[in-house]
Amino acid sequence: MKKILAGLFMTGAIAFASAQTISFDKTTFDYGNIKAGSDGHRFFTVKNTGDKPLILSEVKPSCGCTQPEWSKDPILPGKTAQIKVGYNTGIKGPFNKLIEVYSNDPQNNRSVLYIKGNVEDLNGEVAAQQANLTVAPVAQAKAQPATAAKRSAKKAVAAQKIEAAK
């Protein structure tokens, strides 16, 4: 019985040791001070240090101001791939964001990458905006006031109809 258990343990240990393993060239990218509207794209290099194909199943940013891109193709043993991270540099002020990377690495199926920096006004002044605020994309921000104006106009028309009915 002891020999059977020892054999099962060794088989499991060998199978576990010969798995895919994820590693990164860095886990934090510091943008430093960057100008508003400048290129916010940066790259993280992912390496498969195991001996089976590594698959990045999902790369999930902490908010909509950060957009990741990655290949869904398996990363072969010893090979690398890149995760492209784009930060919206139209949002002025300091930022500190995280990106979760999910993979089939049995020991580390969730890795966390960080980006940080400070977006300055075009004239070099630092904006006083808080980094933790979630800001709607520009297209939505412009569309919302028009929607609110339409609602106000509809309410005014409804109020006029009620007044006329009296």
From TrEMBL:
Signal sequence range: 1-19
InterPro entries noted in UniProt: DUF1573, Ig-like_fold
Keywords on record: Signal
Keyword Signal: yes
One Pfam family matching this protein: DUF1573
Name of the protein: Uncharacterized protein DUF1573
